Amino acid sequence: MSILSKQEIYKMEEDDYKYIAHSANRNGEEQSMKQHSEGVAELMKSFALANDFAEIYLCCGLLHDLGKYSTGFQKYIRSNGNKEPHARWGAYMALKSKLINIAFPVIGHHAGLPNRDAMFEDLEICAKEENKWKNIQQALEDDDFIIPICDNSPFDKIGDVFQKELFIRLLYSALVDADSLDTERHFKKEQFDARSSKTLDVDPLLTALNKRFESFKEDTPLNELRTNVRLYAQSLANADQGCFSMTLPTGMGKTLTSLNWALHHAKAHPNIKRIVIVLPFISIIDQTANELKNIFKDYDVILEHHSNVIFEEAKEEETYCKDSKYLATENWDYPIVITTAVQFFESLFSNQRSKCRKLHNLQDSIVIFDEIQTLPVNLAECTMKMLNDMLHLCRCSFLFCTATQPNFQTRQDFSGIDHIIPLVENPASIFASTKRVKYNAIDEYQAQSFDSIAEYVVEQKDSVLIVCNTKKKAKALFESLKGRSEIPVLHLSTNMCQIHRMDVINKVRQKLKNGEKLILCSTQLIEAGVDIDFPVVFRELAPLESIIQSAGRCNREGKLDEGQVYLFQLEDQSQPSRQYETFAQYAQLCYKGNEGRLAEADFYSEYYTKILSLYVEKESITTKRKQLMFQDVADMYHIINSNTITLFIYGYDDESKRLYNEIKDQEYLSRKDYQRLAQYSVQVYEWFMKNNSNKIDETPNGVKIWLGAYSKEKGLSNEDEIYYI
After folding, report:
1. Residue 13 lies in a domain
2. 331 conformational bin, left if phi > 0, alpha if psi -120 to 50, beta if neither
3. pLDDT at 385
4. CA distance 97 to 74
């Protein structure tokens, strides 16, 4: 197959061609069909899953814009006609050549991967437009552009239908990235050149990480245990690529231990190009990213990709972006990526161009999943099936890190990971030796009033954290405690905007550090990613993972012989969902009368195995994958199923008012604007919007403004007070 060199592609004179793919750039240069098609093909080849697949990737790149050779499109691109679809013609040629794996990416490279049935319906149109097809073929001949059909046998040899489905996704990802990059190279060469060329250089990162380990004191039993755990995991880093687990109690340093293993694993496997760290909550990401940036301060290797990160944007007079990190969020082309579980998993199952663009860069990667048990149970089996397919196809390694390790290995009633290698030797003994809390049942779980629980709390001699399952109950306990306690009582919930929540958390940390007593009433948002240490925790009955996470905020630093965790049930038994309630009840059945089981490592696996068997989806998403129904899969796979609406809290402080005045009259808002707004926003349900419509305004650019009451203690309120703009 003859592919033009870079020099040949970009030195062609405008007069040498009559078929163009893109209009003139700022230099007045058009991009010919050959330039673009072969430029994309060249990039596609560099993204190929393996050398065996290089021809398939090349062919896909050459075919993707075949339809632009049509008379109609050429009239359009020269501003003389109406726009017409072009993607179907390359897919049509692929299908005629029995290359269905190429047909899907080509037809979907703008609109998204379609369902199989929808694609065939679309291509039937091509079969009925024989004259247009002949004209395209004639144009190819006139342009002296030959597209050789590739050898499809490597695809045919892929293990099963699910791995073939995944291959189509990887090919699609490579195509949309290559297409975007080559188009950018034509229109925004400066931006293309600003993209990162960083690679994962393991040795200096290991040196920096070892310096951090050397700074830890080893004169305590806990630190000695941490070191032993780290070195044991490190001793298994030379193992073949695959799936691994690290089951450790909170406070054992999972973040650095897992990263140390990952770097040594990457050193043992030179094909590894990046490390991706997947975390369930943005608060954990901030904490983890800051820690790693501090360790690797001499090396710019960390990319954070989540909604709170504000990147440098192009100035008004500039037509391109110079921030390599911002650009890398599009395709994750960076040595170490830190992202959310929602971003990661939904990208695996998405059919949309922007979400899928990064997927091919997960090839030859190590992915560390922290707190994997937060994955919705109904999505567990289809997710593990996808990850298992990636293990077989993509030369990946996965590491599951958690204190409550679910049983995700394939078994009779669960199609999961074929083989999981534990990186912790005898976790049961580690859990036993690091036991920091005692679990206590209040009144044998008899239902309690808010006032009764408040009385239990004020009797404590130390600071207390109380965790409830709903905002309503956390607020009610807060109100009950305010009238009883002589020490400060604080409140924390998602009714408070992000900046407000961080203010409260920082205040709590400072008071605890100073030895000042306080009571904090919170929802589950405190459970993970918030590094605070209370001597006493009260936890409303909840699913097992929530109980363990709440207990992780008790005696976290091990300064006490034993922290106290009190489990209670309220008379108000409303729960966030029916599933949440079921899991809580089942967890209680498992440990009631023997709360000591909550400190046993084996208990978690037993619990999750039962939960998975009860709630795993046996139908649907995996079936749809088998049928190549990409649109249906994307529609069905959602980590968060919440129909919430964002309200901007105008009246929080002077800064929020200044921000409002900045954006209220803007016709369009930038990504940075939305990120700034998010810091002063609260998510509410549709019923709240309907019940409080008189307190909500909307700017011309679509931002919904809360004009009602906002308490400095409790956050959003539907009381009658109104802030007038």
Report:
1. yes
2. alpha
3. 94
4. 25
Q: What is the pLDDT of residues 267-281, one digit of tens each?
A: 999 999 999 999 987
Q: Are residues 499 and 581 in the same domain?
A: yes
Task: Show the tokens assigned to 271.
Answer: 């094909």
User: Which of 217-221, 334-338, 374-378, 393-397 is predicted least confidently?
Assistant: 217-221
Structure tokens at 106: 């080509």
Nearest-angstrom CA–CA distance, 382 and 391:
14
Q: Are residues 182 and 260 in the same domain?
A: no
- The one-letter code for the residue type at 120 is F
* pTM exceeds 0.85: yes
97: alpha, beta or left, given left = phi > 0 and alpha = psi -120 to 50?
A: alpha
pLDDT at 3: 45
Q: What pLDDT shows up at residue 725?
A: 43
Q: What is the CATH number of the domain that holds 522?
A: 3.40.50.300
What are the pLDDT digits (tens) for 107-142?
A: 999 999 999 999 999 999 999 999 999 999 999 999
- Calpha distance 434→248 (Å, rounded): 10
Are residues 288 and 415 both part of a single domain? yes
| 499 contacts 679 by C-beta, under 8 angstroms | yes
Tell whether 635 is covered by a domain. Answer: no
CA nearest 158: which of 389, 349, 409, 388? 389
DSSP class per residue in 172-183:
HHHHHHHHHHHH
Q: Cα–Cα distance between 636 and 336 in angstroms, integer?
A: 30
- Helices (runs of H) and strands (runs of E) counted in the chain: 31, 22
Domain that includes residue 500, residue range: 435-599
**pLDDT tens column, 46-66:** 999 999 999 999 999 999 999
Number of domains in the chain: 4
Residue 244 lies in a domain: yes
**In 468-545, beta strands by DSSP E:** 489-492, 519-522, 536-540
Q: Please give the residue that has the higher pLDDT: either 351 or 642.
A: 351
Q: How confident is the model at residue 186 (pLDDT cuts 50, 70, 90)?
A: very high
366 and 439 belong to one structural domain: no
Check if the beta carbon of residue 565 is closer than 8 Å to that of residue 548: no
Could you give the C-alpha distances from 619 to 281, 382, 583, 616, 684, in angstroms and in order? 28, 9, 21, 9, 31
Q: With 0-12 CB in 10 A as exposed, 13-18 as middle and 19+ as buried, what is 587? A: buried
- State the average pLDDT over residues 352-374: 93
In the predicted structure, residue 671 carries a pLDDT above the cut 80: no
Q: Are residues 141 and 207 in the same domain?
A: no
Q: H helices within 150-281, ranges in order?
A: 153-156, 161-187, 189-194, 202-215, 221-235, 254-268
Q: How far apart are CA 715 and CA 500, in angstroms?
A: 8
Check whether 619 has a pLDDT greater than 80. Answer: no
Using the CB atoms, write b or e for 377-392: b if 16+ within 10 Å.
Answer: bbbbbbbbbbbbbbbb
